[in-house]
Specification:
- With about 150 residues, this protein is of the alpha+beta class.
- It contains four helices and eight strands, in the order H-E-E-H-E-E-H-E-E-H-E-E.
- The longest helix is centred in the middle third of the chain and has 11 residues.
- It comes from Pseudonocardia asaccharolytica DSM 44247 = NBRC 16224.
- This is HNH nuclease domain-containing protein.
- GO terms for molecular function: endonuclease activity; nucleic acid binding; zinc ion binding.
Length: about 150
């Protein structure tokens, strides 16, 4: 069911189910009372930028936002394009990490496996991806990053 919070609070006259069927106000209130709410934040073009905690999968609009920020695999030294990449949850979804722009980074398959299995840490201190190597690679764990895609010549 798709309904705006303000419509639900204002006792909306109708709502629309995913399959297109209309609901009466009474049906809407009854279903909403029993439903799990999945908040979805949309940008001005109606593309999802945040889908809360109910889903681990990344909607197309959110994937495009991550791709625009990272420009492909964000791992330093990697030149894999977006089409070769996955979105990686920085704080794992199963550990409470949200499916949001500030918790996702674009990684190619090789670097996705590396981050999961070799002790690399990813963070976004200023909204851009930064990678901390494991201590066995760099005892000081100096952050590493690629330049933002718009600065690469």
């Amino acid at each position: 069911m798709h309904v705006r919070p303000e419509d639900l609070e204002a006792r909306a006259r109708s709502a629309v189910l995913d399959f297109g069927g209309p609901l009466t106000p009474a049906e809407l209130r009854r279903l909403a009372g029993d439903a799990g709410v999945i908040p979805i934040v949309l940008n001005g073009a109606g593309q999802p930028l945040d889908v809360g905690r109910r889903t681990r999968t990344i909607p197309d609009g959110l994937r495009r936002a991550v791709a625009a920020r990272d420009g492909g695999c964000a791992f330093p030294g990697c030149d894999r394009r977006v089409s070769w990449c996955d979105c990686h949850h920085i704080r794992p979804w199963q550990d409470g990490g949200p499916t949001t722009l500030d918790n996702l980074v674009m990684l190619c398959k090789r670097h996705h496996r590396l981050v999961h299995h070799s002790g690399w840490t990813v963070r976004l201190p200023d909204g851009l991806p930064e990678f901390l190597p494991p201590r066995w690679i760099d005892p000081d764990q100096n952050p590493r990053r690629k330049p933002p895609p718009h600065l690469i010549a």
